[in-house]
Amino acid sequence: MTRALIIVDVQLDFCEGGSLAVEGGTAVAAGISEHVARHREDYAVVVATADWHIDPGDHWSDEPDFVDSWPVHCEAETVGAEFRPELAPALDQVQAVFRKGQYAAAYSGFEGFTDTADRRIGLADYLREREVTSVDVVGIATDHCVRATALDARTEGLDTTVLLGLTAGVAPDSTTAALAELRAAGVTVRS
């Protein structure tokens, strides 16, 4: 079994002090770095995803409903789109970053792309080419982008585990609902 670690959206805007902060985001960044340091040999591939909005349409709003529209966040080339400094040790092990949501809302890392020396490639193809069969998913937010990335991983036929202790959710009710949806889809949720 070839396993990958997918680190989802551990960016400044999604952590304490950011424009769309999730409580516990900074601690998750540090925890992921510790996890990678302890378990690097468990993963053939380590990748990260990042919101990278240029003009995402009505995904941004001055009057967000926090369901389909949100305050401005992770604008491309701004400080808020950068990764948390606590994630730096893990980023040293990241082989590719998949940026998503340039011109539309994008919750799943599988909507993102990375540029290689000769082409642009999506996350599913990138993992397939490296013969990845299982993934661990960590990051922010449990009830939004982690949820969407894990569900798409299952759709791609990957054995998928969410490491709950290395995620942060926006709200208890939506996180509980997301975890139930993940389990129903065959995703393993582990503390």
Automatic annotation (TrEMBL):
Every Isochorismatase-like domain range: 4-190
Coiled-coil regions listed in the entry: none
Pathway: Cofactor biosynthesis; nicotinate biosynthesis; nicotinate from nicotinamide: step 1/1
A Pfam family assignment: Isochorismatase
Name of the molecule in the record: nicotinamidase
InterPro entries attached to this UniProt entry: Isochorismatase-like_dom, Isochorismatase-like_sf, Isochorismatase_Nicotinamidase
Keywords attached to this entry: Hydrolase, Metal-binding, Pyridine nucleotide biosynthesis
Enzyme Commission number(s) of this protein: 3.5.1.19
UniProt similarity note: Belongs to the isochorismatase family.
